[in-house]
Each structure stands twice: as structure tokens, then as C-alpha cells.
Write a structure and sequence with these properties.
With 174 residues, this protein is mainly alpha-helical. It folds into two domains: 1-37; 50-172. The protein has three helices and no strands. Helix 2 (38-104) packs antiparallel against helix 3 (107-172). The longest helix is centred in the middle third of the chain and has 67 residues, at 38-104. The radius of gyration is 32 Å and the shape is rod-shaped. 3% of the residues are buried. The model has no long low-confidence stretch (mean pLDDT 81).
Length: 174
């Protein structure tokens, strides 16, 4: 049964071709690996170790950048928290003025203070939303950093195993 969808046919052909190419390359790699001398193997291991070391250094840079971004986000959160507290204070001052105007019987002044307080409350609510968004950004930055740390730890372990293998291959050279 033939499929009438040409993209499916092309995709299937591409998959089959890529599987065949991967199989061919893996067979060629295994045969080349079996024919290599210990010196060639040590050179190959050294190249792999150098590559892994570069990757680990790149991850260290990423972690450093993540730490800097986390520090900046924490600073911004503190600054936004202070601004929020200041606006809350202004809102409370307007509330006290409104209450004082009502106590004096100044209804027009109380209405004016109520409008100012409502404006301050809208500002407080907007700042709270921004603060929550910043908290989420900080959590995402920390999550990214922790993923980088885990990847670096795994790569260090792999590199350590490769170094041990290289050293054992080098010990076979006479």
C-alpha cells in the first residue's frame, strides 16, 4: 500500500538513509578502532579529553553568567520590594488623610484623597505583579544554573574516566 502523502514518503526515505548512513559509519568506526595502535588510541583519547575540557570550561562560563544574572535579579527584587513598600506607605498616608477629611466633615477632600489612594493601590498592584514575575525569572535562572552544574558534574566524571582509560592505554605502550 502506497502512501499518497509525498512529505511522508520523503521523510521515510530520509530516515532510512540516515539510519543506513549511521550504521555504515559505526561499522567503519569500530573497524578503525580495532585496527588502531595504542599510540593512536592515546592520541585519540587526548583529543577527546581536550574537547571535553573545552566543553567544561564553556559550561563554567555559562554557570558564571548564570550566577551574575541571579545576583542582578536578586538586587532588582530587593529594589522593587523597597519601591513597593514605599508605594504602600504612600497609599496608607492617603488613607489616613481621607479618614481625617471624613472626620472633619470635608467630603470633597475625602473624595480627592480616595482617588489618590486608589491610584496608589493600582501602582502597588502593578508592582506586586512585577515582583512576582521577577521571582519567577529568578527561579528559572536558578533552575538553568543547576542544570548547568549537573551537566558539568557529569562531564567531569566522563572526562575522569577518559583520562583513566588514556593512562591505561599509555601504560601499554613500550
Amino acid at each position: 500500500m502506497r502512501c499518497s502523502n509525498p512529505t511522508y514518503q520523503i521523510g521515510t526515505k530520509m530516515k532510512i538513509q540516515s539510519i543506513m548512513l549511521t550504521t555504515l559509519l559505526s561499522v567503519a568506526g569500530v573497524s578503525a578502532y580495532a585496527q588502531s595502535t595504542p599510540v593512536d588510541q592515546v592520541k585519540s583519547d587526548n583529543a577527546t579529553i581536550r574537547h571535553d575540557t573545552k566543553e567544561i570550561r564553556a559550561e563554567n562560563r555559562d554557570i558564571h553568567k548564570d550566577n551574575a544574572e541571579i545576583g542582578k535579579d536578586k538586587h532588582d527584587l530587593n529594589k522593587d520590594g523597597q519601591a513597593l513598600n514605599k508605594e504602600r506607605h504612600e497609599r496608607n498616608v492617603d488613607q489616613r488623610r481621607e479618614d481625617a477629611d471624613i472626620a472633619k466633615g470635608n467630603i470633597a477632600g475625602a473624595q480627592k484623597m480616595e482617588k489618590a489612594r486608589e491610584k496608589e493601590q493600582r501602582n502597588v498592584n502593578a508592582d506586586k505583579r512585577d515582583l512576582n514575575k521577577d521571582h519567577k525569572d529568578l527561579a528559572n535562572d536558578r533552575k538553568d544554573r543547576n542544570k548547568d552544574l549537573a551537566a558539568r558534574k557529569d562531564e567531569r566524571g566522563e572526562r575522569k574516566a577518559e583520562v583513566a582509560k588514556r593512562n591505561s592505554d599509555a601504560a601499554e605502550i613500550k
